[in-house]
Each structure stands twice: as C-alpha cells, then as structure tokens.
Design goal:
Helix content of chain B: over 70%
CATH topology of the largest domain in chain B: Arc Repressor Mutant, subunit A
Oligomer: heterodimer
CATH superfamily of the largest domain in chain B: Winged helix-like DNA-binding domain superfamily/Winged helix DNA-binding domain
CATH architecture of the largest domain in chain B: Orthogonal Bundle
Distance between the termini of chain A: 43 Å
Number of strands of chain A: 0
Strand content of chain A: under 5%
Number of strands of chain B: 0
Number of helices of chain B: 11
Shape of chain B: globular
Structural class of chain B: mainly alpha
Largest interface: A-B, 55 and 63 residues
Shape of chain A: elongated
Largest sheet of chain A: none
Chain lengths: ~325, ~200
C-alpha cells in the first residue's frame, strides 16, 4: 500500500469523524433483545455448554448423526419389504395387519360386529369387519355426495368404510406402506376421503419409489396429507414462489408441505437462487438438511455465479458446511 | 462471567465465543465495537438511513443466531461484513437498483489509465495530501457515492472493515484478482475525483 493509499484511508476516517449520522437507538435495543432470545433458545435446546446441566441423550453417543442418516435410509427399504410381505399375505391377514394392535386381538376373540354396531370404532375396524377389497383394478368411482370435512376424526365409521370401498387395492397397498413407516396420527382419517385418494396414486409400480422415499419422513407425509386435504391446487410457479417465501422465513413444515404438493426442490427465483441457497444464506440448518434429503443440488449457481457451497463457505457456518460436503 | 473491562481488550472472536457460551455482556461489547463500522458500510452502500437501520438489525440478528456455530477459523470482521454485504446485495436485488459492474468496465479503464500519469507522480505531495479540511473530507464521501456498487463495496470493506484483498475476495465471492482490480479501480477513481476537487 502506497503513501497515497494511506492518505486516502486517513481522509476517509477524517470524513467519518465529521459524519454525525448514526443508526437509530431502536436497532441496538432490538439486536440485544434478539441476542438474549437466542441465548435463551440455545439454553432451552441444550446447545450451550456453560448452561447445560446434563448432556443431551444424543450427546452421549458420538455416532448419532450417522445413525440418524442410516435409519432414514433404511426406513424406505423396510417399508418396501413390509409392503411386499403384505402382498403375499392372505386377505384376512392383510386386514389384521392394517388394523391397530388392539383390534387385532379383539378380532381373534370376538365375532365380527354388524355395521351398525361398528359406529365409533376406527375406520380400520370398519374396514376389517365390513369391507372386502375388490379382486382387481376397478374403474374410477364417483365420490359420495357428502365427504368428510378435512381433519374430522369423529366421522361415523360406516361412512369411512364406505369411503374405503371407493379405494382401489393398490391405493390400500400404498397406504399400508406409509402407515407402517410411521406412527398413526390424527391425520389418518384424511385417508378415508375419497376425493383425496382418487387422484393421488397412478399405478403401484410407478408410485413405489415415491411412496417409499417419502415414507421415510413422517413430517413430510403428515404435511403432504394435510396439504392434499385442505389446500387448493396451485400452479407450479405459485408453489415455487410460496416455497421460496417459506424457506426465507425458515418455516420448515410449510416448506415440506409445499414440496410435497409439487414445488420443485431445485426451482430458481428471478435471481437464479434455489431454495437451498436461500436456506444456506439465512442459516436455516434444518431446512438445508431437509432440502438436501429431498434432492436439492448444492452445485447449482445463482445469477451471481455462486453456489450454495460457496455461500456457506463465505458465511463459514460450521453447522451447514459439513452438510454440503460431497460425502454427505 | 467476564468483566466489562476485560471485554475491551478481548478479540472479536473471543467475544463471540464467550457470547456463544452465554455471556451477554460479550455480545454487547462486540456490538458496540462494530455497530458504527457495519452501519456505515451498509449506509454508504444503500444510501438510505431507514434501510441501513433495517439491514444492520438483520445482520446482527444473524450474528446472534449463528454465534453458536461460529468457529474462529475466519476473522469475525470478515464474517460480519460478508453478512452485511450479502444483505446489501439482497436489498439491491429486491429493489432492482444494482448497477452492473460490466456497465462501468470501460469507464473504469479510462479513469484508471488517465489516473496513472498524475497522482503517482504527485504521491505524497499532491492534492491528496492537501485534502485535510472538513469540506474536502466530505467530498470524499460524495465521491464514494459515485463509485459503481462493486467498487464501492470493495473500498468500504477495506476502509471500514480493514479487510485485505484476500478477505474482500472472500466476502464478495470473487477471485483475488477481481477483488484487487475492483479495489484498484475504486482508489483510482476516488483519487481522480479528489484531484478534480482540489
């Protein structure tokens, strides 16, 4: 650096000393309040060693990350195996497997209830007692005039059983795969909606990889079902725009839901930025992890020529950097 | 808990690590140390106080959020100003107000080639040395505002953050040579403008 360069900086410092403009006082207050909140949040999450009274369970096991990834990878395989096993089972055993554990023993010890008595039982019970799957692929049926409202768990079992009548065997098969990959939830009742079931599955063969991969993620599955049940159909561009908003805001469940509804994981905004780049820049580790699991490509560059990896390197976030390495 | 007095001598990196371990005072010290520098960098880039305030807040929110993941491999200053620079770029992208460096390449070359003959010969004795009054210093700030965005940010990263060429390259995501070139053009242009002012 020459003397003239030094002078340039000296003049700049002199100029700034004459410049009395300052940031508003509210900024300092807001920043310090946010920092305090961040500290509190870390303390709650157990990420702060100084305040951590007892190590988290996972912290006792150094390979927990590898185990988590391995379990996520094995879950779809297990789903496929169970699905194939179910295909080979006789019809009665399939139905018994489909029902929750408790009704299975009830079936073994008590005779089937008539349809009127089945009121109040789960739709799986009703299916086991009243409904026999059709022997082969059936033409699409017209949905009943009165469908259950979304998320209504209290609908009569008989109507749910009727709804199951409209479901084709391969749809039942796909649902069994998903149900066995995650615990039952309140959203289970959404399965019985004929309007939700009809357009979702094309053919079992074409759908198996998709179902298997998504069965690995209970949250994604849950969000998918809720979204299908309640949301209107959106164009891909609209879904992608909503995805970008959700990612920028760090809203993981919304992002998952939008991806499940058809938003493209590698879509770009007008600046060429992908959802992954946005998540990296915003420091949303969970979103980065999920996007990568769902096939987001870290090598895509935005209009400025920078990839997610390069942004992560710039920021130097030690949580995100390892996620983007080729080994992961 | 560390005393405030010890915070004045501590490095930026150690203050951030202390904050990550729960020392709120360390964060306050860090913020007070860099508030004006980071704000001026943003303000001179976006030229709007309200926007500068908002972006400054956003940057420091990110510092607080990501402190737990910070590893002192990179300098805190580089990290901070990289985030500030990214916010500025995002702002320009959103407002579609960003000027392209390509549009200024020819002009830069002309200014640079015109500059080489005079100020180097006058180095240490020319108008740059004479610009000591308040008006002259403020003229520099006006001159900075006339720089293309990429050159302005390169100069400000050096003047406000004290970053070297390598750090500027890292912060702006360009090669070392590109960062060096931008910085050189910025300095040439500023010196030319100050020469004209004098």
């Amino acid at each position: 650096m020459t003397n003239a360069d030094d002078d340039l900086q000296q003049i700049y410092r002199q100029a700034t000393s004459h410049d009395l403009r300052r940031p508003a006082a509210r900024v300092r207050q807001a920043v310090l309040a946010h920092a305090q909140m961040a500290l509190d949040g870390q303390a709650r999450a157990g990420n702060r060693p100084a305040l951590q009274k007892r190590p988290a369970v996972a912290a006792n096991w150094p390979n927990w990350k590898a185990a988590l990834v391995a379990s996520l990878l094995l879950a779809p395989v297990a789903g496929i195996l169970v699905s194939r096993h179910q295909q080979a089972l006789p019809e009665g055993e399939q139905l018994a497997l489909k029902a929750p554990p408790k009704p299975v023993t009830a079936m073994a010890t008590t005779p089937p209830l008539p349809r009127a008595v089945a009121q109040g039982s789960t739709h799986a019970d009703a299916a086991a007692n009243d409904v026999k799957p059709e022997p082969g692929p059936a033409p699409a049926r017209t949905a009943p005039a009165k469908a259950n409202p979304p998320g209504n768990d209290k609908a009569p079992a008989s109507s749910k059983a009727l709804a199951n009548l409209d479901r084709q065997p391969h749809e039942e098969q796909a649902d069994r795969t998903m149900k066995q990959a995650r615990p039952a939830t309140a959203l289970e009742s959404v399965d019985a909606r004929p309007d939700a079931a009809a357009p979702r599955v094309a053919t079992p063969a074409a759908d198996a990889p998709r179902m298997a991969s998504r069965a690995a993620d209970p949250l994604l599955l849950q969000a998918n079902r809720a979204a299908e049940a309640t949301a209107p159909q959106l164009a891909p561009d609209e879904l992608n725009a909503l995805l970008f908003q959700a990612v920028r805001a760090g809203q993981l469940p919304q992002a998952k839901s939008l991806l499940a509804r058809g938003a493209s994981v590698n879509a770009r905004d007008t600046d060429g930025q992908t959802a992954l780049i946005m998540a990296v820049r915003a420091g949303h580790e969970g979103l980065v992890r999920q996007l990568l699991l769902l096939g987001a490509r870290p090598d895509l560059a935005d209009n400025a020529g920078l990839t997610a990896v390069q942004y992560a390197r710039q920021i130097g976030d030690s949580r995100i950097m390892p996620l983007l390495m080729p080994a992961n | 808990m560390h005393s405030p007095a010890s915070s004045t001598d501590a490095t930026d990196e150690s203050l951030l690590l202390r904050f990550a371990e729960g020392d709120m005072k360390a964060f306050e010290s860090l913020y007070d140390r860099h508030e004006m520098g980071s704000w001026r960098f943003i303000f001179r880039s976006v030229r709007d106080r309200q926007v500068a305030d908002d972006l400054l807040q956003d940057v420091w929110f990110a510092v607080a959020r990501q402190a737990a993941a910070y590893q002192p491999r990179a300098k805190f200053r580089t990290w901070l100003f990289t985030m500030a620079r990214n916010r500025v770029v995002d702002h320009f992208r959103a407002s579609r107000d960003m000027q392209s460096l390509d549009a200024h390449d020819d002009a830069d070359d002309q200014v640079a080639s015109a500059f080489v003959a005079e100020p180097v010969a006058n180095s240490g004795f020319g108008p740059v040395r004479q610009l000591e009054s308040k008006q002259q210093a403020l003229a520099l700030l006006e001159a900075i505002e006339t720089l293309p965005q990429e050159q302005r940010e390169a100069f400000l990263l050096q003047a406000e953050a004290g970053l070297g060429v390598a750090d500027i390259a890292e912060a702006t995501g360009v090669s070392f040579e590109t960062a060096k070139s931008r910085l050189r053009y910025a300095r040439s242009r500023l010196r030319t403008l100050l020469w004209e002012f004098a």
